[in-house]
Amino acid sequence: MSASQIKVASHRFCSLEQDSVDMTLEDQEDACGDASLEKHNFSRGQREIIQVMNVKRKRDFLCLEKVNGEMVNILEGIELHTDIFSAAEQQMIVENVCELQEKARKGEIKRAFTPKGKGRSAIQFGCCFNYRTSKDGIPAGILRHETVDPLPSLFKVIIRRLVKWHVLPPTCVPDCCVVNIYDEGDCIPPHVDNHDFLRPFCTVSFLSECSILFGSNLKLEENGDYSGGSYLLPLPISACAKREWSKCS
Question: 3, 27, 151, 164: which has the highest count of C-beta atoms within 10 A?
């Protein structure tokens, strides 16, 4: 399986009609009335071409670190793609995630977590997996005999765009994802993504800029923050970070 993450913070935007979830992102943008290119009388196809041309891509990340006695580029395979979603599309996506968060609070979603301390709320779609070995001794990774909610329709639309706009390869289309919802001060602990999942991973960030810290010497401080690391990658709003693989993160 391949996986993606959608990261958001707790916030609310204008309401989204439930029946618009099955629309394409372009349909939703038109419905919101905030399509900046529409005033120029461009067709939908022309607007999409302009959007794709405006996407910024960076693939030449380099940070050398000694790992197991060998100097390696710990950022090998990292790509950053920005300006994938318009402001109107971001509104639609975040509102949909907020609705999913509310369903999770009501117990209407099968796989949702709210950890204690400086963590984040998480909702799994497409497949069920453990982040770490459970109290019952079940190892981290995909739980193949557990049921979980399927990918929401809007997430499938997002994935199709990421493939069509050459963020993700057509040979490895994600069929599952985890939604991480961060409040101010929340973070995800240092980890290496489980190898039950095929690469690449794709992280999409909304609402506020955040950073991903890479390195093999990350340490947990008494106040719950993490120190160390060799490279801090800022993730702008609506940016997509693709990771083929990384030695440390």
Answer: 3
Tell me the pLDDT of the chain (249 aa) as tens digits. 444 454 544 333 333 333 343 345 656 545 444 455 555 678 878 888 888 898 999 999 999 998 888 999 989 999 999 999 988 899 999 999 999 999 998 999 988 877 655 567 889 999 887 777 777 877 777 787 888 899 999 999 999 999 999 999 999 899 989 898 888 877 777 777 777 787 888 889 988 888 888 888 888 777 767 778 889 898 888 888 887 754 444
d(Cα 15, Cα 1) in Å, to the nearest integer?
Answer: 33
The single-letter DSSP state of residue 151 is: P
CA distance 177 to 6: 7
Distance CA 233, CA 65 (A): 16
Strand-pair partners of 3: 176
Q: Between helices 25-32 and 87-105, what is the axis angle to 10°?
A: 100
Q: Quote the DSSP letter at residue 178.
A: E
Separation in Å, CA 188 to CA 17, 182, 214, 219: 32, 9, 12, 13
Residue 20 — φ and ψ, nearest 5°?
-90, -5
Contacts of 88 (CB under 8 A, 6+ apart): 28, 29, 32, 33, 34, 35
For residue 177 the two structure tokens come to 């994802």
Backbone phi, psi, residue 232, to 5°? -105, 115
Single-letter amino acid, residue 137: G
- Answering whether pTM is above 0.85, one says no
